[in-house]
Amino acid sequence: MWYWSFKYIFLGPILRVLGRPTIEGHENIPTDGPAILASNHLAVMDSFFLPLMVDRRIYFLAKSEYFTGTGLKGAFQRWFFTAVGQIPIDRSGAAAAEGAFTAARRQLEAGKLMGMYPEGTRSPDGRLYKGKTGLARLAMDTGVPVIPVAMVDTHKFNPPGSILPRPTKVTVRIGKPLDFSRYEGMEGNRYIERAVTDEIMYELMQLSGQQYVDVYAASLKNKAPAVSPPAADAAA
């Protein structure tokens, strides 16, 4: 109930005024049945604008820190992210994330839409970074289609570190579904999982117009802030 209340009553109308969001390729999202929405990740608001513009409910994997806070703020975060369908994921290692993987698979087996960010974290500078193979593993394990999604200009609406939004027109681009059934029976092969991941990232690069960087975004998080290159705004 809270998911739809936030979408249509409490939060959605505000985002529509401030972000003036539009969606391209909505017909590529199936009206029923499971699928993984593989999105680039520019800002926290990606997880708000994408559900706002898609008719069906989307479940996301969210970092476990959102569910472990203390005090009043921590309690509110746990309630909010649970209410809007977020599934906590421990990013400390593959073994720690197994529970989240199982939860995501359960949602897909129930015919739901899963939203995932193959980069694993937000882009530090607006470029597209190397994808992690967990999404590919899930897609191969369940056999569901992967639908690439490009979020455009959400990092301008919600710059890293900002609290208040900056009114900016946001675009959501939905690509054609990717079918990886040709790899049936090859689950667990890390080379195949990497090939699938790289194919997804290539589609995201084409769809978003972002410059691709063949390193993990997380490896740059503790370094000095980088200046966004001109190519990062190619899709604006």
Side by side, the strands of the main sheet go 1-8-7-2-5-3-4
Low-confidence stretches: 226-236
Global morphology? globular
Q: Cα distance, first to last residue?
A: 34 Å
Quote the average pLDDT: 89
If helices are DSSP runs of H or I spanning 4 or more residues, what is the number of helices? Answer: 8
Question: Strand fraction band?
Answer: 15-25%
Helix-residue proportion:
25-40%
How many strand segments? 9
Helices and strands, in order, run as HHEEHEHEHEEHEHEHE
How would you sum up the major sheet?
7 strands, mixed
Give Rg in angstroms: 17 Å
Determine the structural class based on helices, strands and strand pairing.
alpha/beta
How would you characterize this protein structure?
The protein is of the alpha/beta class. It is globular. It starts with a helix and ends in a 23-residue tail after the last strand. It has helices spanning 2-10, 12-19, 46-53, 71-83, 98-109, 134-142, 154-157, 190-208; strands at residues 22-24, 35-39, 58-63, 86-89, 113-116, 128-129, 146-152, 171-174, 212-213. The chain contains eight helices and nine strands. Mean pLDDT is 89; it is low at 226-236. Strand 3, helix 4 and strand 4 form a beta-alpha-beta unit. The longest helix is centred in the C-terminal third of the chain and has 19 residues, at 190-208. Helix 5 runs parallel beside helix 6 (134-142) and helix 6 crosses helix 8. A seven-stranded mixed β-sheet has the order 1-8-7-2-5-3-4, sandwiched between helices. A two-stranded parallel sheet has the order 6-9.
Topology record:
Blueprint: H1 2-10, H2 12-19, E1 22-24, E2 35-39, H3 46-53, E3 58-63, H4 71-83, E4 86-89, H5 98-109, E5 113-116, E6 128-129, H6 134-142, E7 146-152, H7 154-157, E8 171-174, H8 190-208, E9 212-213
Parallel strand pairs: 1-8, 2-5, 2-7, 3-4, 3-5, 6-9
Antiparallel strand pairs: 7-8
Helix pairs in contact: 5-6, 6-8
